[in-house]
Amino acid sequence: MMESLHALQRHIDTSGKLQSIVKSMKTLSAVNIRQYEQAAHSLDGYQETIESGLQGVIRKTGLPDSAGEEGEIQGLVIFGSDQGLCGRFNEKLVEFLQKNQASAETLQRSQVLVSGARMAARLEAAGFKLTDTLWSPGSLAGVNRHVYEIILILYRWRQTPGLKRIDLFFNRYEPGASGLPTTLPLLPLDNQRLRELMQKEWPGRSLPYNAISPDKLFSALIQQYLFVTIYRAQVQSLTSEQASRLHSLQQAEKNIQEHLEELTARYRNVRQSVITSELLDLVAGFRTVTDNAIS
Q1: Residue 1: what pLDDT?
Q2: For the chain, domain boundaries
Q3: Distance between CA atoms of residues 55 and 57, nearest Å
Q4: Is domain 31-249 classified as CATH 3.30.1120.10?
């Protein structure tokens, strides 16, 4: 009995320490979610500036040539996770990709860039042929460099004959949800959006003066547009990953709490049995001494 008490006490202590670790991880995930949300919101003003610049250029020069490249090769940029404890974060996006992509033959000809080693493993197991793989940034500080690495790879892809389009795939963050699989066209440019910018009323009396040629300015603005779009997708993926991890940790904490309550109840029952046994031994000993004294 005494050994059982000691064993139960060790289990209770271990579960309590594990519960403390889970609580700390929950706090860290909640802080990261808030940090990534702020980073996404901070891009709003910058994106408005880029769109205003594009509006000014295309109002002067007109829309760029909308003739798309001929070909069947598609570029896929997929944002996943490097770390665990995030539920079905990667699996849901893989299932979404399988439902939204063309035949297996077309996929074999596609250029596929994956951010996240765990996502890469899932995609390979699902039959995807990966062209490039990157480690997902572990913090907000690493997102900038990571996005530039993706852009460099996309520039290399653009030299591929027959590349028709490039799409982004990621889990979009929604409060209260663990992640919503989403696709976002990246290239070629959405001419409908450019037309809307061209027709939008200019806020000033005259268009701004360009110190460089419109073509160079348009190219520079498009580079910044690509950066902002990819940055948003990466931050959305990281936020969704943290939300999925927070949900998993909340479930783990609930399970640990239930396990602790069960262990505590067992400990009390065993301890009561030990106390009862000791009292019975005392009573039996007292009776023996009393009987011997009388006789």
Answers
A1: 45
A2: 31-249
A3: 6
A4: no
